[in-house]
Fold this protein.
Amino acid sequence: MPAPLPAPLPAATWPAHSLPSYLNPAALGSWGDYLQQVDRVIPYLGPLSRWAETLKRPKRILVVDVPIHRDDGRVAHFEGYRVQHNVSRGPGKGGVRFHQEVTLPEVMALAGWMSIKTAAVNLPFGGAKGGVRVDPRTVSTAELERITRRYTSELGLLLGPHKDIPAPDLNTNEQVMAWMMDTYSMNVGVTTTGVVTGKPVDLGGSLGRREATGRGVFTVAVEAARHLGLPIEGARVAVQGFGNVGSVSAKLLAQAGARVVAVQDQDTTLYREAGLDLPALLQHAATNGDIAGYAGAEPISQEAFWDVESDILIPAAMEQQITEARAGRIHTRLVVEGANGPTTPAADDLLAERDILVVPDVIANAGGVTVSYFEWVQDFSSFFWSEDEINQRLVRLMREAFATVWAVAQERQVSLRTATFIVACQRILHTRQLRGLYP
Ligand code: GLU
């Protein structure tokens, strides 16, 4: 009989091994933000905190070289990543982004947030994320296809409908998912629709997936506003980012009677005190590719966006946009994070001090991965649901998840972010403990 195991040490006496050796502490970026968010939740995890180091170390990381022939015959190399942060609760799940500034620590952070997000809404997935360091504006469509296919082949070891399931993210879309699905399927010799989500509807995609993240942002914005006693009718809304998330959130809020006073995309910031005409702006963006040159509003400087007075602010662009300096200037009542990681921990504290409620990314933008889950389920059953059914299920799930974290925030007297991390980390680490270590 082996001797019984000693009782676990309290978490605080365990050595802190939070940085894998391959990381440069000076260039942690969003991964540093993520680690701080995890550290804040550890005191609330009770005995499960003995497993907390799990959350600070991605399970698997693959860095790949992606060589392609340029259209002129030259060979070009791009760097690609896929991080599986945690797969305790199910296959890795998370998008792939194409961006010239993607870094490994950024992808690690995004993968970590996916683990928290899928657990927060109780989907049977872990968290993963991928990226290719490329500016898609500088390559042709044919080159983008070759990058996507080579990247997918290089990840061959990791991907699979029960292993790791990519989806769209920044600068990737349904077409990119179609290429990924086809490449994987050709390599394994069988059409496997469930290996990616966010596919075209004609290829096993789900109705409602394209608008799902924005619809989720809208749903939690309405819930949070209700708790604040803030009517949506007439509420002033400022949205940073006019991609898939920002544009749909803005459209749905405007349809509900809110006044979208400011919108910013990569190069342009528009302001209109009386509220922008969203259908007209969407039409302009669809025709021109962006919001530049739209005549129905006043262009203001990029930085002036943060001085616009609003009731609801939706950062729906990139990480680390609400810095401490900006958090001191923002005039709003409610921040709903459409983007992943838009608020730094120091800014988060300042917003809380200033009594500005923040609905964190890991719940606010979970609508996308929720409908990804619906898509994955539909692919397996080869039985497809109506758009109404999907939207209803999405709204129900988002409201339930929001109500759960709201209650925890009230009970523990913590921010909604910490409350969401408490709910999610308990779920992840409980599974971790049940499964145990093997080998
Ligand atoms: N890229 C989205 C996110 O950050 C969706 C991920 C997915 O559907 O797997 O949540």
